[in-house]
# Entry
Amino acid sequence: MAQADKTQPEGFDKDKLKRILVPAAAVAGVVVIVALVALVSGGSDRKMSDGSDGSANDPNLKEAAPGVKYRDIKEGVGEPCKLGAEVKYHVTGWVLGGNTIENSREKGGQPRKAGVNGLFPPGLSEGIIGMKQGGVRKVVITPEKGFGPRGTDKVPANSTLVYEVELVEVSPPRNVTTGPGQPMPFDKSNGGTDDPDLKDIGEGLKYRDLKEGTGEPVKPGAQVTIHYTGWTVDGKVFDNSRPRGKPNTWRLGDLVPGWQKGIPGMKPGGVRKLVVPAALAYGDRGQGEDIPPGATLIFEVELVQ
# Structure
């Protein structure tokens, strides 16, 4: 005679358990599917400070530059922010559908201060051009204008980023000059495109070393710390890092192609003149009011390290 199965507790009802577990498993499956769909589609439940759409699919986004889109949440007043301006700003940034990567209001509550060209990642600089003082803007940045395939400790590789920027104060560019030409700031030598000592790198990109540095030459894609001045061929200075009091640190891969190709080979302490054609700078779109479409640009670059 077979003995009764004693492995199940008294009162155990397998059919009742199935009625509980099967629907629960189904619900869990739906949750996972929804999460995956949101991840793949680029969606995000995160909202902007006014409760509006915080996703990359926001239909009201406008293109500021390739890889950078924006929407004004609040219109500011006064003159639009230009290249070379100095700004005070609050910023909150997060990975699309993910964690917060920075929040200036949580760190002492004081607005940050920087030259607009020195903001990082590069897409943030492009995204706030045109903002007015007191304005609030949503900026969406693709990986190419963000932290790319390397990412950071807070940003996974190839992440799309969303920022909300409040422009607290805008100071216009300083040391802006106009004229028929601009000598090199370092040694007052020929600052034009007719410089006979320029060497051709290719694709219309040219350079001349004003001062030879020492140490290991910069390699393509390296991180560099530089001071620089940039102007158009008519002598108009559109940006200058020195009045801001400190050099900028960037990865070469995040900069315009003319710098990506023109800075490798420099040594720390060196100073180089670069003549960058529009195709390797801001192309047919230009950049704000200071760099017209199709502009050839001239730079003096000092490699600090």
